[in-house]
Design brief:
It comes from Anaerococcus porci. Keywords: Kinase, Membrane, Transferase, Transmembrane, Transmembrane helix. This is Histidine kinase. GO terms for molecular function: kinase activity. By secondary structure, the chain is α+β, with helices and mostly antiparallel strands. The protein folds into two domains: about 170 residues, no CATH class; about 140 residues, 2-Layer Sandwich (Heat Shock Protein 90). The chain has a five-stranded mixed beta sheet, covered by helices on one side. Helix 1 packs antiparallel against helix 7. It is elongated, with a radius of gyration of 32 Å.
Length: about 375
């Protein structure tokens, strides 16, 4: 949300600096009523734009930018001393601001907005006190009209700046809470999924084997066959969920094990695998573990959520970044939207990647899904032997 207000604050700062240049070059209007009117209208215009932007999260970006030029720019130009048609500039600003606010403001949300990060009662007290202070300063120091209006604009600019910082801190705190909530939800869903695997793939086979052995004419050989298959299946499940496997092997071995373990969980899917690994990270166990966990999630998503016939995996380093690039077919637009809107598995990936100053992006071309992950590593040539 705070990013939507940055352009307004920057525009306000530019207007103040522009007025300063006009004053320095003796091009600023000298009429006090015009200065006071434009300064007051600018404050109310900024208030209106800020409240509208905050109340409505669905304002198109192009209109947010357009209103800056059509509302604030004319107000900034009006104070040029020799500028003709000042009234026309004022009307352009007024009409543009009014149309924007009328079209996009959500009045039900306005009552929850306060530009000062304090209570409404405290805001009222602060405003009254500030107005009184300004009048006292004007009287005692005999400040002229230009300086007092610039002073008021600077105070309002500082208020906007602190409001943005306040919003930024609140949004970061909310984002962390949001991620932690969905991370805990993801862990709960993983436990449920693991319980379903135990029930469907292990308990059912044990129950079947028990019935064969408990019959009057037990089929021992068939029971052995079921139990042998069960042992193999249980080992594959154990390897898939046992993350400590990543700690003792080098990167290439870990990735090979991941492909084997994931594919073994989906015996009915025959996906042609292509691997290009240009890096040797045997000296960095922490990074090997991170790459392995991320790769396992990405590879499992391809097996689990698509009808892929091939999967291309590439790992390489460029500068101080390690890149993972994957490409697979069999994806649909529905699958692609699920990936972008996922709040579980993909969120876990984002948490891991963000914690390492990385980035993940997805692309869809017909049924070809591409994934690119970048991870920041230290600038140390010993990371890579090749």
């Amino acid at each position: 949300m705070y990013k939507k207000l940055e352009k307004i604050v920057i525009s306000h700062l530019m207007i103040i600096l522009f007025w300063g240049l006009l004053f320095k070059n003796k091009m600023l209007v000298k009429e006090g009523p015009i200065l006071n009117a434009v300064s007051l209208i600018l404050v109310f215009t900024l208030y209106g734009l800020i409240y509208t932007e905050i109340s409505n999260k669905k304002i198109p970006q192009r209109f947010s930018v357009l209103v800056i030029f059509s509302s604030l720019l004319p107000l900034g130009l009006i104070l040029i001393n020799d500028l003709p048609y000042k009234l026309a500039f004022f009307l352009i600003s007024l009409i543009s601001t009014s149309l924007f606010i009328k079209r996009y403001i959500i009045l039900d949300n306005v009552k929850y907005i306060n530009i000062l990060p304090i209570s409404r009662k405290s805001t009222q007290i602060f405003t009254i006190g500030l107005v009184f202070f300004i009048f006292v300063v004007i009287y005692l120091f005999d400040i002229d009209t230009v300086m007092i209006n610039i002073f008021i604009q600077i105070i309002f600019l500082i208020t906007e700046f602190f409001f943005i910082l306040f919003l930024k801190e609140k949004e970061l705190a909310f984002e962390k809470t949001f991620k932690l909530y969905y991370l805990s939800d993801y862990m709960a869903s993983e436990r449920d999924e693991f319980a379903m695997i135990i029930h469907d793939d292990i308990i059912q086979d044990i129950f079947a084997s028990k019935n064969y052995l408990s019959s009057k004419n037990p089929d021992i050989e068939y029971s052995k066959k079921i139990l042998t298959s069960l042992e193999k299946k249980a080992r594959n499940i154990m390897k898939f969920y046992q993350s400590s496997l990543f700690e003792k092997a080098n990167l290439e071995t870990s990735l090979s094990a991941i492909f084997d373990n994931v594919s073994s969980l989906y015996p009915n899917k025959n996906i042609k695998i292509t691997k290009l690994i240009y890096s040797d990270l045997t000296e960095d166990k922490k990074l090997i573990r991170l790459i392995s966990i991320i790769s396992k999630e990405l590879i499992n998503n391809v097996y689990k959520h698509s009808d892929a016939k091939y999967l291309s995996y590439e790992l390489y380093k460029k500068g101080n970044l390690v890149y993972i690039e994957m490409e697979s077919d069999g994806a649909s637009l529905v699958d692609f939207n699920k990936i972008r809107e996922s709040k579980r598995g993909v969120l876990l990936l984002n948490l891991l990647i963000d914690s390492n100053s990385g980035n993940i992006s997805y692309g869809l071309n017909k049924d070809i899904l591409t994934t690119k992950v970048s991870l920041e590593v230290e600038r140390d040539e010993n990371y890579f032997v090749r």
